[in-house]
């Protein structure tokens, strides 16, 4: 995913600033994340966010303008702040690290509800959906390098789609989060990675 705003162009909240403006942005995005985790997207209110962040309401309205633009900026910041991928020299170990990162995020007391709220919002708001899609494309693109290296080492068929392999790692974890309510543990993460690697080695993700 390119670092661009879902609405295209230079909409508010899309340029990474410095100095005091950076501190304001950080405080507002933290407050927005807390509010999403606690109340969901439907209750997101810029005035409440300003109060939580300890900044002027006018500042928040001028910079972001709408809850949707604020969520888009939050997702952009989350993508930028996410941990870099590992490089162990082993596809299974790399993807196990990826799965455990996803598992740790989704089982976190704050991050899990936050992602649920954003995913729910994306089902009925096109701008939020676009921002969420770009967030995941950024993260999948980051970790696709693990699969590309595995192809170069001869671990996988030459025409394997790296992005599909990475998506296959996190898909069962999100499914479990959203449909079962069962706890996400490291064993679930490891199974997801092992299943994705086995499928990739069998040629399941070869481009057709």
Automatic annotation (TrEMBL):
InterPro entries named in the record: Homeodomain-like_sf (IPR009057), HTH-type_TetR-like_transc_reg (IPR050109), HTH_TetR (IPR001647), Tet_transcr_reg_TetR-rel_C_sf (IPR036271), TetR_C (IPR011075)
UniProt keyword Plastid present: no
Region (Disordered): 1-20
Record feature DNA-binding region, as residue ranges: 45-64
Keyword Kinase: no
HTH tetR-type domain boundaries: 22-82
Key words, A-Z: DNA-binding, Transcription, Transcription regulation
SUPFAM superfamilies recorded: Homeodomain-like, Tetracyclin repressor-like, C-terminal domain
Coiled-coil intervals, chain numbering: none
The name this protein goes by in its record: TetR/AcrR family transcriptional regulator
